[in-house]
Amino acid sequence: MEIRPILSTLRRHKLTAVLLTMQVALTCAIVCNVAFMVANRMRQVSLPSGLDESELSVIHSTDIGQDAEKNPWAQHEADLAALRAIPGVESVVAVSYALPLNKNESSYGTCPSKQALDRAMQVMSIHGTDCIEPSVYNGSPGLIAALGLNLVAGRDFRADEYVLGQKTPPVAIISSGLAQHLFPGQNALGKELYVGHRIIRVVGVVGTLLRPNLHGPGTNYDSMIWPQKPDSPGSDYVLRSAPQDRQGILQAAKTALLKVNPSRIIDPKYMQTYTQIRAQYFQRDTTMIGLLIASALGLLFVTALGITGLANFWVGQRTRSIGIRRAIGATRGDILRYFQTENFLIVTFGVVLGVILAIGLNLLLMKHYELPRLPLWYLPIGAAALWLLGQLSVLAPALRASNVPPVVATRSV
Amino acid sequence: MFGYYLDLALRSLKRTPVLTALMVLAIGLGIGASMTMLTVLHVMTEDPLPGRSAHLYTPHLDPLPINFKTDPLGTNPNQNLTWPDAMALLQAHRAVRQAAMAGGSVLVWPQRIDLQPFYVDGRYTTHAFFAMFGVSFIKGSGWTDADDQASAHVVVLAETLARKLFGTVDAVGRTVRLGTLDYRVIGVTTDWAPKPLFYADASAKFYSDADQFFLPLSDVLDSKRLDGDLRISGNISGWSTSNGDDLRDPSTTWIQFWAKLDTPPQVTAYQRFLVDYSAEQKSLGRYQRPSTNAELYSLMGRLRHENLVPDDVKLQMWLALGFLGVAMLNIVALLLAKFMRRSGEISVRRAMGARKRDVFVQFGIESALVGVAGGLLGLGIAQFGLWSIRHRPDDYARLAKMDPSMLVGTVLLAIAVSVLAGMLPAWRACRVPPALQLKTL
Predict the structure, then answer these.
(1) pLDDT single digits (tens) B310-353
(2) Backbone angles phi, psi at A137, to 5 degrees
(3) Between chain A and chain B, how many beta carbons pairs sit less than 8 Å apart?
């Protein structure tokens, strides 16, 4: 296909061609970055927590009776027994407040050695030391099994290791993420953790265990579990059951708890299946994913509309010259290919410009919105998508052009 | 002539109905999305106390040890004040009015038997809070300096809570049980929730939290700080290992402080006072950092500093504006091609005596029609967008409404967009030379 005549035609419609090129460029730049943002958020939303989320539900209760402060654990034990008796409940545990993705976090500066601790004390901060700040989970005996955590090394807690409420336990089970960060390349089992001035021995390692709040890709899985029974009037009960029973079991749990002790607050807002807890945590991200996809599709649609519309005008405008070309021997295929090549050229200019714009836009987003760098393989995919879009949108007008009969040449206008 | 051009434009648009509809749709979507996000941004950055905000200031002190590593991204202990510092500023009386405060929640025991006990959010503060921020009372009044000193068991309720507890706003003199103690109601205010709740601690939901009760700040000192009757809901952070449970600890911050300063000299004087105070504390050995770290923020300056608008909202706004930009480019290109296709018609009109200006106006009207139709559609789409935002669980969701200024803004944007989009094609059309085109006919 001869390109020169196409270029010279485009030169006569310079302004329109430039506008269309710019539109393709902007669309390419925005769509590449939007696709990247969608991929990032998708990854975020689907981060595994390590829990058997589909079988878990959580109910929160706060004892407000006169004696609520006196012996909360005794109350929890009575509550647990009542909850266990609900048909369909496979297991139930009480935790103080922290659970993956529920946003209630407690974390302690934790050091792998005495030297690291001393250094952190000296600068009054864990920044720049070997210490990190993992989330701490606690709960009544049976937590690991009830949550469905995967114990990859060591053992579960023994009954005599459990402490009450605010006391620090002698042992802990840590996540494999935390094990790698605190003791890189070593076996964490049996190691001692320096948590403030307390020393805690690692007796087990669980696989994945996400934090209540996500702070960044590097620290999302730094967590540990303490053998600590909840000992305050407010507590979360985690119930395990068949996935479809969860809603019913939450209602039954509320009734059962109020039967054990009516002077308590159970807010329906804090009666949730784990699916709801996850959806609530990522609510903003899911909205954003929807908006991003909608706007990317909208942009592509508008650009396709622009290409089709413009090609339609050009075909109409050039009907006579198409007729002449047909009359002097051009085949239908020649005409079809002419418009396809013309579109290909415009989109190519646009895409080249768009790729540069996409990188620039990404740099801007990295600077202002802490977005990671755009992987370069997004660019050829974005370019290919626009080429395909261009060819599809020009097809109908080009086919119409190729159907212009040669006889048009003999008519005046 | 205008009527005639309008008629011409309508005819021309009707000749390509599908294309016209799609152009209007594209521009409508662009304007609708942009106005939705601009409105959200507008309501989030609005002045929470118009008329008063210009005179309100909040001091910032830096009592952190010299070797304390602050986290540049996170919240640092020096964002709030310690009890001793707040009391010193309060007792110095250097501002026209001043108040210390902290957010909290209490368990309310209603006397009505049909109501279960419930938690409610409010504020612990000192007596000048009401006059300084202009909280208006329906019944009764706030408490006095003496009540502050005596940790009096008095409470001011907001209208909603008063109605909920007593069924009437006339609750003054009645008693309400908060936690384990009884408090005497001395005033009922109209519902009070500046948007954003500028004086709240960084952990607050600035756009949806509201204060339902007010208690003297000194009352919380006797309460256990986390599990007690009067809980503090903001950040309590410290840098000493020996602070225990005592809120009076000089290395535990949890208090917000606001001052009313009417004139620029008062502002500079107060700034100097903060630096002097820091220097004094440094000479006493309590502070270690430079006394010039002490700062005074204006209300709007403070809000800018806090950066309350989430990044997602800003990204959504840029995305919407990008969409509008692409839609506009699209309209310009299409109108240009459409007008140039009618070069023959233009050249005939020109040859018959139409001035350039006439051609420009004729085609300008055609593109303005597309813009106005798109703007109207955009207004509808923006209302729909805001409606759907209001039904989302976000903190700011309920605020997403268009006020008159944004309504006018939308109309202006639509006009600007249509004029911008129509200008270039109309200008090109009016430059079609008459003679040349006649010759080719």
Answers:
(1) 888 899 999 999 999 999 888 888 888 888 888 888 888 888 88
(2) -105, 150
(3) 118
Last residue of a domain, one of B306, B331, B364: B306
The CA distances from residue B300 to A124, A303, B55, B211, in Å, are 33, 41, 10, 21
Q: Are residues B107 and B194 in the same domain?
A: yes
B322 and B267 in a common domain: no
User: Are residues B246 and B120 located together in one domain of the fold?
Assistant: yes
Residues of A in contact with B344 (CB under 8 A): 413
Query: Which residue among B306, B333, B354 closes a domain?
Result: B306
Q: What is the pLDDT of residue A368?
A: 85
- Say yes or no to pLDDT of B441 above 50: no
Look up the domain containing B40 and give its range: 2-45+310-440
Name A327's Cβ contacts closer than 8 Å, sequence gap at least 6.
Answer: A406, A407, A409, A410
* Contact: A313, B26; criterion CB under 8 Å: no
Place B396 in a pLDDT band, splitting at 50, 70 and 90: confident
Instruction: Spell out the domain ranges in chain A.
Output: 4-45+284-410, 53-282
pLDDT range class, residue A359, cuts 50, 70, 90:
very high
Concatenated DSSP letters of B372-413: HHHHHHHHHHHHHHHHHHHTS--TTGGG----HHHHHHHHHH
Residue B242 shares a structural domain with residue B140: yes
Whether residue A396 contacts residue A305, with contact meaning beta carbons closer than 8 Å, is answered with no
Residues B39 and B95 in one domain: no
Return the residue in B231, B323, B428 with the most chain A beta carbons within 10 A, the one to mutate for interface testing: B323
User: For A314-326, what is the mean pLDDT?
Assistant: 87
Identify which of A23, A37, A69 has the shortest CB distance to residue B326.
A23
Same domain? For B63 and B199 the reply is yes
Three-state secondary structure call for residue A172: strand
User: Number of structural domains, chain B?
Assistant: 2
Tokens of B274: 């903060």
Mark whether B293 and B355 lie in a shared domain.
no
Give the bridge partners for A136, in sequence order: A224
Gap between the Cα atoms of A407 and A324, Å rounded: 8
Instruction: Check A291 against B319: CB less than 8 A apart.
Output: yes
Q: How far is B391 from chain A (nearest CA, A)?
A: 12
By Cβ distance, the residue of B312, B323, B337 closest to A16 is B337
- φ, ψ (nearest 5 deg) of residue A309: -60, -45
Q: Within this chain, do residues B361 and B236 fall inside the same structural domain, yes or no? A: no
